[in-house]
UniProtKB/TrEMBL annotation:
Pfam families reported for this sequence: FilR1_middle (PF08350), HVO_A0261_N (PF25213)
Coiled coil location: none
All copies of domain HVO-A0261-like N-terminal, residue ranges: 5-88
Annotated Methanogenesis regulatory protein FilR1 middle domain residues: 122-248
Origin superkingdom: Archaea
SUPFAM superfamilies: Winged helix' DNA-binding domain
Protein name: Predicted transcriptional regulator, contains HTH domain
Protein source organism: Haladaptatus paucihalophilus DX253
Length: 254
């Protein structure tokens, strides 16, 4: 049995995954399966026969049940379909990431929130970011940001005023722009938070609180196109590792 042919066979009809998934929980006859899934008995019988030929099911006392191979095929294909669905759902985030080293595992995003900029609501990701920072409790914030925004500045100033310890990593050109536009404000901000200068490109954003993370994907113009909010522990570890990587490559701003 060749793998490409197996993939093509399973993809040939969504009914096949439904049938296999049903058999995981409830072995049955062709009639049982057809009635439970609201498909024709002929279709159920044909698929069951094909499954049997592939060694995925066995028939006992008139009922079909998954074999161990069938269980593995069902589990693997179900995960594959679910992963593709997640990739499609979060496409606006994935497509604007700088490269594959910035990709989180789609499996972590099952319960994540995605906010996307649109023609009608171009600031939706930024607004969600500000709202979440104001509503979440945390003792510290670590932020990697490719651009400056007055909205970002205001909400982080509020957190600093409340005693939240803050670290900020930004690209050198963005920091120099901020310094030249408003030297006094820059000096005040520098005294309130720990700022780090990254001399390489920063095309991705991440903000870490106490056990939660927000990740932002930007377009070539530096606009936040998609924001992901996720509390999965592995997502937090991934975001923290990325932040640490940029932080390690940066220098404190004196």
């Amino acid at each position: 049995m060749e793998t490409p042919e197996t993939v093509a066979f399973l993809a040939g009809s969504p009914e096949r995954l439904r049938l296999l998934t049903h058999l995981r929980e409830s072995p049955g006859s062709p009639r049982d399966v057809a009635d439970s899934l609201d498909v024709s008995r002929r279709s159920a019988q044909r698929n069951l026969s094909e499954f049997a030929d592939r060694g995925w099911v066995r028939k006992r006392d008139g009922k079909y049940a998954l074999t161990p191979s069938g269980e593995l095929v069902t589990r693997t294909h179900a995960n594959y379909v679910e992963t593709l669905g997640t990739i499609e759902r979060f496409d606006a985030f994935f497509r604007h990431l700088p490269d594959a080293t910035h990709l989180p595992d789609p499996a972590w995003l099952h319960d994540a929130t995605l906010v996307v900029a649109s023609a009608d609501q171009p600031q939706a990701p930024v607004s969600h970011y500000v709202s979440r920072l104001r509503s979440r409790k945390t003792d510290s914030i670590r932020m990697l940001a490719p651009v400056l925004s007055r909205l970002y500045h205001d909400v982080h100033a509020e957190l600093v005023f409340e005693g939240v310890e803050t670290e900020l990593v930004m690209p050198a050109d963005t920091l120099e722009t901020a310094r030249s536009l408003n030297p006094l404000e820059f000096r005040l901000v520098r005294r309130a938070i720990d700022i780090y200068r990254h001399d390489g490109p920063v095309e991705f954003g991440v903000t870490l609180g106490d056990g939660w993370a927000l990740a932002g994907a930007y377009n070539d113009d530096g606009q936040l196109r998609a924001l992901v909010e996720c509390t999965h522990p592995a997502f937090f570890e991934w975001a923290e590792e990325l932040y640490r990587r940029y932080r390690k490559e940066s220098r404190p701003v004196g």
